[in-house]
Amino acid sequence: MSKEWGVPFFESSAMKRVNVEEVFFALVREFGFLKKDEGKKPKRRGCLLL
Per UniProt, what is one GO molecular function of this protein (predicted)? Predict the structure, then answer.
Protein backbone atom coordinates (compact mmCIF):
# COMPACT_ATOMS: atom_id res chain seq x y z
CA MET A 1 0.00 0.00 0.00
CA SER A 2 2.81 2.45 0.78
CA LYS A 3 4.22 2.02 -2.74
CA GLU A 4 0.80 2.80 -4.23
CA TRP A 5 0.58 5.99 -2.16
CA GLY A 6 4.24 6.93 -2.66
CA VAL A 7 5.03 7.11 1.04
CA PRO A 8 7.71 5.41 3.14
CA PHE A 9 6.84 2.34 5.22
CA PHE A 10 8.41 1.66 8.60
CA GLU A 11 7.96 -1.19 11.03
CA SER A 12 8.62 0.17 14.49
CA SER A 13 8.17 -0.64 18.16
CA ALA A 14 8.42 1.91 20.93
CA MET A 15 8.51 -0.88 23.50
CA LYS A 16 11.52 -2.56 21.87
CA ARG A 17 12.98 0.77 20.68
CA VAL A 18 13.10 -0.37 17.06
CA ASN A 19 13.13 2.32 14.32
CA VAL A 20 11.62 4.96 16.62
CA GLU A 21 14.15 7.66 15.71
CA GLU A 22 14.07 6.74 12.03
CA VAL A 23 10.30 7.22 11.90
CA PHE A 24 10.54 10.53 13.77
CA PHE A 25 13.23 11.93 11.48
CA ALA A 26 11.34 10.80 8.37
CA LEU A 27 8.30 12.74 9.61
CA VAL A 28 10.43 15.82 10.27
CA ARG A 29 11.79 15.62 6.72
CA GLU A 30 8.23 15.33 5.33
CA PHE A 31 7.11 18.41 7.27
CA GLY A 32 10.19 20.24 5.99
CA PHE A 33 8.99 19.66 2.44
CA LEU A 34 5.56 21.00 3.34
CA LYS A 35 7.02 24.10 4.99
CA LYS A 36 9.01 25.10 1.88
CA ASP A 37 5.73 25.86 0.11
CA GLU A 38 4.79 28.64 2.56
CA GLY A 39 3.81 31.86 0.85
CA LYS A 40 2.53 30.04 -2.20
CA LYS A 41 -1.03 29.05 -2.87
CA PRO A 42 -1.51 25.74 -1.04
CA LYS A 43 -1.98 22.70 -3.24
CA ARG A 44 -4.31 19.92 -2.27
CA ARG A 45 -2.15 16.96 -1.30
CA GLY A 46 -4.80 14.62 0.02
CA CYS A 47 -4.43 13.67 3.65
CA LEU A 48 -1.52 13.48 6.06
CA LEU A 49 -1.63 10.60 8.54
CA LEU A 50 0.41 10.60 11.72
Answer: GTPase activity
Residue 24 near residue 12, CB atoms below 8 Å: no
18 in helix, strand or coil?
strand
pTM of the predicted protein model: 0.51
Q: What is the amino acid identity at position 48?
A: L
Q: How far apart are CA 13 and CA 31, in angstroms?
A: 22
- Lowest mean per-residue pLDDT among 11-15, 19-23, 36-40: 36-40
Please, which pLDDT band fits residue 21 given cuts at 50, 70 and 90? very high
Contact 11, 17 (CB under 8 A): no
